[in-house]
Predict the 3D structure of the following.
Amino acid sequence: MNRSRVYARLWHGLLAAVVVGSLLTQIVLTAQGSPGPDGVVEPVVTRFVRLFSFFTIQSNILLLIVTVTLAVNPERDGRLWRVIRLDAMLGIIITGLVYATVLAGTTNPTGAGWWSNLGFHYVAPWWALLGWLLFGPRARMDGRTLGWTVVWPVLWIGYTFAHGAVTDWYPYPFASVTEIGYGAAIRNMAFVVLIAVLFGVTLWGLDRRLPGGRVVAPVRVSEAHPGKTEECADPSGAGGASIASSGSERQR
């Protein structure tokens, strides 16, 4: 087996273990419950709905999906997988940046919560980014993938505002309409989307230029059948990742 594949599997497998440990710890803490600022312990269903409403938790779940599949197959590919992978990368990077610059001073986790916080906000983001830089796989990004990637953050923003309007609860202070009003909350959320787009474009550019990738075969019009497209030959011999004329998707 190629040595780089072994290292990649170990890297992604260890990251998956960190994320699983952090998630399980947080789930246990949520199940146990703790009094809020008003001294009231919320019902268990409410606690879990709120837990999975956090961008941090959703980002780490997406990252877990990606790291597990890459631990199994470091050359994983597929149209849907590409979107999930880019969402995971962008989500976890934003999670690390926003926590370090905005939220770290507003929280004081202790005990087991300190360890889950460490995994979610400090280990996972930069371990994932470094792993992407070191192991890829590349090339796995294109304009279509980038376009679909913004769907999840936009849906999360819409859900956050809708859920907050019904329950008067918001996962983050910068999104709290109750505290800062709709104007400031929408502006803050739009800024998060802008950051995601900028990072997405940056990763897309790096994905096409960093070593270790494979040539993505373009789609051209068939000369024999002008209305039909076909996949060009892959000069690397590694196989293309574009959509063939039948529209079927090939995974590695």
User: Anything to note?
Assistant: Residues 214-252 have pLDDT under 50 and may be disordered. Helices lie at 3-32, 44-51, 55-72, 79-103, 112-135, 143-149, 151-167, 177-209.
